[in-house]
């Protein structure tokens, strides 16, 4: 609503950035323990009271606890408890797998600030949800790939390399090593597209850049707004 | 006799001189003694005689002390003590000392005391004044000395000029001249404060001031805008704001300053510092208020220009808040002085100016208004700076009825034109908001008890239909995507309601209908909250209306089965959850609404149970939850009468449901039935007499046979009723009932869970409220270690612990011993949770009497009772199982104990918490992590010592495993992040690499939220020790 935004009609409001359309219910339910019925009831409750702290919620939790507590105690043999301590393998848990998708990559990168504006890459539409590709079949032993195409604000943007570096550093820190990322300029969005692309995906040059304390400082500043 | 007095005077004088500058308190005491003697047994002259030698001494120190003695005595004298002739002598004496610059402070102090004497003559004052004007050079003296002349002037003013008793013109003339000389060039804050006050008095009450107008003004304005930062140990405790206010008050004191003040202040408005601007604006406002209409009529043009410039070119801090945030009462923001909002202040000044002008003369105001209109009208045509222009006009309009009418008449037609273009509509709504605000400022806000008040005819009334139409169209005629326009419309509707006497009841009903439709059909959060706020505001004033138009409609929408969504209108569907949520949200603390909702929802519950369709269990759960929340949110405010009247309507319905024994959705549902039972608790919480206990006992024990051979879940409603009743009720059968319950529990090994919990809780309530320690001891068997007996003991123990009975610790001791028992240890460790678990129906609601015996600090007592023994047991045992039991018991207790109660035990506790992290039980781990998080936030030092143990432990917990459930992983990651923030860098840094590598695995966690947290935590460690970027 400020005049500034009206002067730059291309800027997207922070709240209007594409985001995952799930309720926060699951987050509120994180960390709670209990039976499946209890969880189901709580989910229902959240629909009428979003605080997650209502007295009914407490009552249901309490009840669940009482019912569990009064049932026969679970018997764990000694051997079992010794063997268990280093449960390493990831597959053993029966939790539901939430895949890494384009939205997740977008959330990681869209809040990086632009080096010269007080705005984020998402707001300036430098990073766009539809320009992110993720190829991952969820297998921990296979490689996965992420491709991001960025759109600089102007075709001769001199900071395109810096923006690309920021995105790369962010992803390298945030994704497991089995991921490979390619950061490209969107076709026709920059005058020296090929040069920049080459520079951004050259491992040696990225590594060298990250050894430059001052440059890393600038990148840190860009990353400081990440959510 | 005289000799004796002389002797006493002499020795006191010597005592004073000895103590002066050495022990000032003592010296002061002596001076008071001397002052008491003066007029009684001694004369002032005696003191002078006593000082004779020292007062003419060559040594300046001695001279000073002697004179100080005299002045101090004078200061202690009452103002009517000294006769005329003595004053004359004293004046002459002090006059002779005026040349002695080293004695200035003492001499002037002497004069200060003399000037407040009743009998001092004009001549004497005049002589002193002449000296102050001609001979006194302030710059030669220190601040402390310079203070005295101000006090002298102050004294003279009070003594001679106060209450209009002006003696002669010459004297006041001299007084003003003396002041001008004394005050020129002053810098000390304490002196300035007094100087400003004097100036104000002079300019307001002495006619002589007029001829010195310019000088007096210059003395003041040379300090404007004053800034002063008090030194650290300022003895006078003068704050910047004191000076600021004194100066402001002096500057705005008299209309004779008007010309100079307005001109200079307008110049100062161009300052760039916001603080200076703020000060200038506030001073300007004060001046406008004080100088009166004539002065403003002469000078309004430059002031208007400056203010307009200020409003047009300064940015309003709370840009969005004005338009979109909740409608706050108009005065709320202004009160807070700490935040500078020059935009708002400038508008305020405009408002004051227009009020003063209008009150002075209609013609002048008209000229002013026409000028303003000419100035700003082009903005409306060009659509430029509309917001500021409207803000200015609404400020002018909010002065009084006359200015309001004038403004509305001339300005509203400039922009109030309905449009379908969304951006234009948005602007229109935002601009309109200003003028609705003006209305509230002029005519007041709607009050709950007097909404039918007549408000004088005003120009806005004729625009009512148009405004309602525009708002209505903005809300209903736009697509749902236009959130801003629709939210604005809802906000303006709410504002209309707040405008006293503006709307008729039919119009309000129309608005309620609009808001109800919107809140039911719109999913957007902003709109939801705007409508909610609107409905709340309306129910504050028109509760009955809201009930009949809005709530009733929503309640009627609820279907009798969960299948299919209730249709609202035009084919729009609403979920049941939405309706219930809205009911819960907007009925809060409104008696009629709460009552009607409870009654209607209860009968709805009956309908649903009777129908018994698919998924009715879920539907009943929602209804029950809503009912309980309604009670829980409002019970404190509900009167006993309301509660009883609800009970009358609701109880028969509840019993009707109880009658349907085969029902699956409430009676047969393990979760719904306890909630349903809790309803019995709430209906009996207030205003219930003693006969109820017997009545319920008859019904439940005799008719429903809850204590016969077979366990019956109807024990639950009975327990809840007993919890609600006051503990003073007589319950004769309590002993017998207790016995029968214990028998019942012991007899049947396979009681279903819900029933078992019901009976156990029943024992707890009985123990807590009615049974004596002896009775209980007779019934209990501490040696029997069967599962059921242990549980009985636990619950009875809980009842005892809560009322801090002596029997409680006995049971606890037994339980701690049982922790090392191979067979029952594991169960017992878990049972510890029961002791401290909070049961809702045992909590105390404010204003509901003392239903239960719950001591305020029982948890603290409980914790300190068991903690030492637990730790000892833990340390003395090598057996891992027993250690594990101890930790489990401890963490179960910790989960329900507020962290401040744990603090005193921290040093012993922390090592145990760390070991609990390795226990093969995720609940134990969660509980330990919870406590550790608290500790980390509060005890940086303590946690720093354990960093090297804690971090590797946490890194083991962040990877998935049987006992590392999502909660454990998430909390460990969060804790790692907190550690990096609170533990000193040099401790953390050595773990940097380890953590970064250790968090690689969680980056591929299955849960997204955990991946997110690992990324955040990892980022924090990446940046540890990095050079800051700015």
Automatic annotation (TrEMBL), chain A:
The organism's taxonomic lineage, starting at the top: Eukaryota, Fungi, Dikarya, Ascomycota, Saccharomycotina
Protein source organism: Huiozyma naganishii (strain ATCC MYA-139 / BCRC 22969 / CBS 8797 / KCTC 17520 / NBRC 10181 / NCYC 3082 / Yp74L-3)
Entry keyword Mitochondrion: no
Residues covered by region (Disordered): 1-24, 74-98
Residues that span the membrane, as ranges: none
GO cellular component, one term: cytosolic [4Fe-4S] assembly targeting complex
Similarity section: Belongs to the MIP18 family.
Domain of life assignment: Eukaryota
Name of the featured protein: Uncharacterized protein
UniProtKB/TrEMBL annotation, chain B:
UniProt-listed Gene3D superfamilies: Leucine-rich Repeat Variant
Annotated compartments: Nucleus
Cellular-component GO terms for this entry: cytosolic [4Fe-4S] assembly targeting complex; nucleus
Top-level taxon in the UniProt lineage: Eukaryota
MMS19 C-terminal domain residues: 579-980
Any GO BP annotation: DNA repair
HEAT repeats: 909-947
Keywords assigned by UniProt, alphabetized: DNA damage, DNA repair, Nucleus, Repeat
Domain MMS19 N-terminal, residue spans: 50-313
Keyword Ubl conjugation: no
Main localization category: nucleus
Family matches, as InterPro entries: ARM-like (IPR011989), ARM-type_fold (IPR016024), HEAT_type_2 (IPR021133), MMS19 (IPR039920), MMS19_C (IPR024687), MMS19_N (IPR029240)
Family membership: Belongs to the MET18/MMS19 family.
PANTHER family reported in the protein's UniProt record: DNA REPAIR/TRANSCRIPTION PROTEIN MET18/MMS19 (PTHR12891), MMS19 NUCLEOTIDE EXCISION REPAIR PROTEIN HOMOLOG (PTHR12891:SF0)
Protein function: Key component of the cytosolic iron-sulfur protein assembly (CIA) complex, a multiprotein complex that mediates the incorporation of iron-sulfur cluster into apoproteins specifically involved in DNA metabolism and genomic integrity. In the CIA complex, MMS19 acts as an adapter between early-acting CIA components and a subset of cellular target iron-sulfur proteins.
Descriptive protein name: MMS19 nucleotide excision repair protein
Organism placement in taxonomy: Eukaryota, Fungi, Dikarya, Ascomycota, Saccharomycotina
Gene that encodes it: KNAG0M01910
């Amino acid at each position: 609503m400020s005049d500034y935004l009206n002067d730059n009609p291309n800027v997207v409001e922070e709240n209007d950035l594409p985001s995952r359309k799930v309720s926060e219910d699951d987050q509120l339910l994180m960390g709670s323990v209990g039976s499946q019925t209890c969880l189901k009831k709580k989910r229902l409750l959240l629909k009428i009271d979003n605080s997650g702290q209502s007295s009914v919620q407490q009552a249901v939790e309490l009840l669940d606890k009482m019912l569990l507590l009064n049932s026969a105690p679970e018997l764990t043999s000694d051997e079992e408890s010794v063997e268990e301590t280093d449960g390493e393998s990831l597959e053993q848990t029966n939790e539901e797998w939430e895949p890494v998708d384009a939205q997740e990559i977008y959330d990681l990168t869209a809040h990086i600030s632009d080096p010269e504006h007080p705005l984020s890459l998402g707001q300036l539409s430098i990073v766009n949800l539809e320009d992110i590709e993720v190829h991952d079949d969820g297998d921990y032993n296979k490689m996965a790939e992420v491709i991001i195409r960025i759109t600089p604000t102007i075709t001769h943007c001199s900071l395109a390399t810096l923006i690309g570096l920021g995105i790369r550093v962010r992803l390298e820190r945030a994704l497991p090593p089995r991921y490979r990322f390619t950061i490209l300029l969107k076709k026709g969005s920059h005058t020296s597209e090929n040069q920049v692309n080459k520079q951004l995906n050259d491992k040696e040059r990225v590594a060298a850049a990250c050894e430059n304390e001052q440059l890393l400082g600038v990148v840190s500043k860009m990353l400081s707004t990440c959510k | 006799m005289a000799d004796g007095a002389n002797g006493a005077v002499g020795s006191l004088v010597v005592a004073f001189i000895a103590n002066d500058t050495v022990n000032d308190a003592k010296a002061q005491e002596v001076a008071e003694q001397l002052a008491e003697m003066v007029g009684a047994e001694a004369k002032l002259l005696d003191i002078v005689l006593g000082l004779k030698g020292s007062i003419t001494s060559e040594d300046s120190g001695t001279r000073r002390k002697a004179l100080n003695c005299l002045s101090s005595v004078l200061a202690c004298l009452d103002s009517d003590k000294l006769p005329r002739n003595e004053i004359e002598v004293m004046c002459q004496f002090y006059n002779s000392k005026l040349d002695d610059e080293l004695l200035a402070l003492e001499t002037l102090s002497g004069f200060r005391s003399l000037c407040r004497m009743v009998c001092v003559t004009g001549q004497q004052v005049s002589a002193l004044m002449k000296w102050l004007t001609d001979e006194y050079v302030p710059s030669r003296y220190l601040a402390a000395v310079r203070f005295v002349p101000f006090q002298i002037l102050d004294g003279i003013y009070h003594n001679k000029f106060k209450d209009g008793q002006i003696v002669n013109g010459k004297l006041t003339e001299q007084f003003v001249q003396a002041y001008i000389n004394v005050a020129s060039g002053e810098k000390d804050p304490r002196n300035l404060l007094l100087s400003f006050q004097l100036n104000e008095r002079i300019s307001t009450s002495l006619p002589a001031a007029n001829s010195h107008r310019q000088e007096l003004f210059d003395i003041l304005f040379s300090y404007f805008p004053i800034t002063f930062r008090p030194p650290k140990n300022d003895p006078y405790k003068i704050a910047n704001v004191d000076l600021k206010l004194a100066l402001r008050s002096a500057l705005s004191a008299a209309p004779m300053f008007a010309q100079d003040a307005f001109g200079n202040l307008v110049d100062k408005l161009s300052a760039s510092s916001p603080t200076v601007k703020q000060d200038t604006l506030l001073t300007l406002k004060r001046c406008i208020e004080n100088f009166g209409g004539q002065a403003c009529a002469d000078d309004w043009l430059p002031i208007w220009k400056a203010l307009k410039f200020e409003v047009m070119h300064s940015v309003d801090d709370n840009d969005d808040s004005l338009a979109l945030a909740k409608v706050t009462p108009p005065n709320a923001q202004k009160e807070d002085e700490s935040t500078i909002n020059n935009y708002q202040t400038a508008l305020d000044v405009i408002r004051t100016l227009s009020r003063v002008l209008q009150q002075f003369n209609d013609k002048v105001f008209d000229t002013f208004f026409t000028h303003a209109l000419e100035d700003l009208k082009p903005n409306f045509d060009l659509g430029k700076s509309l917001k500021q222009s409207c803000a200015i006009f609404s400020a002018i309009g909010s002065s009084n009825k006359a200015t309001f009418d004038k403004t509305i008449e001339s300005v509203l037609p400039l922009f109030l034109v309905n449009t379908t273009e969304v951006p234009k509509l948005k602007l229109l709504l935002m601009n309109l908001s200003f003028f609705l605000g003006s209305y509230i400022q002029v005519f007041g806000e709607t009050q709950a008890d007097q909404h039918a008040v007549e408000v004088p005819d005003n120009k806005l009334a004729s625009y009512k239909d148009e405004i309602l139409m525009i708002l209505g169209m903005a809300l209903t005629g736009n697509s749902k995507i236009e959130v801003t326009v629709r939210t604005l419309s809802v906000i303006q509707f709410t504002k209309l309601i707040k405008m006293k006497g503006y709307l008729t009841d039919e119009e309000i009903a129309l608005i309620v209908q609009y808001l109800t439709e919107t809140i039911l059909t719109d999913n957007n959060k902003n709109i939801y909250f705007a409508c909610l706020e609107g409905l709340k505001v309306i129910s504050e004033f028109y509760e009955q209306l809201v009930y009949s138009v809005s709530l009733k409609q929503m309640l009627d929408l609820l279907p009798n089965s969960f299948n299919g969504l209730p249709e609202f209108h035009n084919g729009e569907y609403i979920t049941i959850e939405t309706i219930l949520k809205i009911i819960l949200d907007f009925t809060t603390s409104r008696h009629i609404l709460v009552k009607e909702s409870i009654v209607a929802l209860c009968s709805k519950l009956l309908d649903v149970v009777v129908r018994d369709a698919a998924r009715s269990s879920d539907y009943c759960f929602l209804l029950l939850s809503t009912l309980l929340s309604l009670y829980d949110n409002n019970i404190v405010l509900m009167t006993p009468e309301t509660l009883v009247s609800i009970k009358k309507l609701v109880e028969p319905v509840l019993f009707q449901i109880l009658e349907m024994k085969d029902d699956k959705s409430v009676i047969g549902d393990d979760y719904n039935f306890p909630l349903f039972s809790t309803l019995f608790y709430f209906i009996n919480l207030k205003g219930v007499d003693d006969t109820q206990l017997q009545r319920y006992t008859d019904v439940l024990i005799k008719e429903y046979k809850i204590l016969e051979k077979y366990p019956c879940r109807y024990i639950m409603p009975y327990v809840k009723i007993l919890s609600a009743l006051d503990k003073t009720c007589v319950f004769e059968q309590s002993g017998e009932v207790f016995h029968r319950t214990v028998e019942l529990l012991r007899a049947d090994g396979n009681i279903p869970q819900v029933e078992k919990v019901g009976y156990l809780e029943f024992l707890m309530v009985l123990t807590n409220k009615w049974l004596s320690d002896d009775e209980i001891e007779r019934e209990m068997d501490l040696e029997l270690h069967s599962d059921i007996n242990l549980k009985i003991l636990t619950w009875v123990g809980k009842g005892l612990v809560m009322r801090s009975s002596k029997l409680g610790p006995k049971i606890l001791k037994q339980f701690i011993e049982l922790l090392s028992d191979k067979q029952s240890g594991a169960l017992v460790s878990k049972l510890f949770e029961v002791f401290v678990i909070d049961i809702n129906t045992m909590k105390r609601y404010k204003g509901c009497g003392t239903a239960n015996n719950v001591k305020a600090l029982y948890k603290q007592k409980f914790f300190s009772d068991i903690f030492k023994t637990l730790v000892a047991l833990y340390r003395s045992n090598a057996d891992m199982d027993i250690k594990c039991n101890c930790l489990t018991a401890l963490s179960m207790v910790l989960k329900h104990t507020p962290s401040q109660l744990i603090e005193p035990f921290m040093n012993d506790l922390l090592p145990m918490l760390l070991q609990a992290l390795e226990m093969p039980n995720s609940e134990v781990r969660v509980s330990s992590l919870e406590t550790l998080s608290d500790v980390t936030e509060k005890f940086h030092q303590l946690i720093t010592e354990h960093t090297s143990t804690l971090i590797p432990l946490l890194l083991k917990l962040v990877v998935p495993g049987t006992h590392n459930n999502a909660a454990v992983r998430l909390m460990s990651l969060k804790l790692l992040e907190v550690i990096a923030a609170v533990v000193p860098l040099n401790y953390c840094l050595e773990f940097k690499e380890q953590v970064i590598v250790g968090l690689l695995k969680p980056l591929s966690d299955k849960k997204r939220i955990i991946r997110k947290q690992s990324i955040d935590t990892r980022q924090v460690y990446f940046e540890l020790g990095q050079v800051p970027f700015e």
